[in-house]
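Same chain as my last thread, 339 residues:
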Amino acid sequence: MLDRDTVCQPTAVQEGSRRAIIAAFLANLGIAIMKFLGAAVTGSASLLAEGVHSVADTGNQGLLLFGGKRAQRAATREHPFGYARERYFWSFIVAQVLFLLGGAFAIYEGIQKLRHPHEPESLWWAIGILVGSMVLEGFSFRTAIHEANHDRDRGSWFRFLRRSKSPELPVVLLEDSGALVGLSFALIGVVLAKVTDNGRWDALGSLAIGILLCTISLFLAREMKGLLIGEAANPEVERRIVAAINGSEDVRSLIHLRTQHLGPDEVLVGAKLEFDGDLTVRELARAIDATEVNIRAAVPIATIIYLEPDIGRSAPDATPGDPAREAAQPTEAGEELPD
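reply #2:
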């Protein structure tokens, strides 16, 4: 049986996620400088709101990298399962503080400009900066899509955002897509304000950016909250665990199964199993070890496994929460389980 030091090794942010984060960091840093320069020249509220948005996005990437570094710390007596959930915590902070802060500022700036409208100056400066920002943001977005496709398989993007256990890629994808939509709002607002001689269009662009950012922040906060509380492994992962257990030579039946992500690449597995009743204590210990080996071979991210021998009990009037039925049909993430 593997000991704690063997299985509770610190995990780093995957290389694909790291590339997406660094690309987004560099793009957003350059974009922020361009937007603030444009806001200073044109006096555009939309450009100023977008500049604050890009500063927030740049900070996002720094926090994601910081969280990935913190998650690599080795397990301790106080934290025997390690620190992998640091990645979830810092992603939650990104969603709750930076996105919401950027959104709140954009809404405030939009309201101020509605009350005191000001027509943006130097239209071509504003357009050039916004288009240049779109190009840089598009580069970052393309990198994030490329890296996410490795994990997405053939599922929809919405499904990927809801089911991904790695927090960094959903954050970067939503941030980049939100930035491109926000830049479009800013461009429309600036052009309409100039064409109509009505600065309120620029203010409305800032308001639209703020509402967009707040919506993204609430969505991300909800998803990160679930991961922080503890989500089960995806159904496909649980099916592989069930198959590995049932394929073990001395296992007669799987009575009860629970899984939980300790981090994006670490899954805790707990199960009650009925073994061959003729096994001696030594043979039972070997059978448990062999079953653990089978599970890890099928699901390498199953880093911590607890298997408890038990006696199967017949249940003619099985309910949806019956342990045997749960093993055959693993629960969906987020579905409430009985005690």
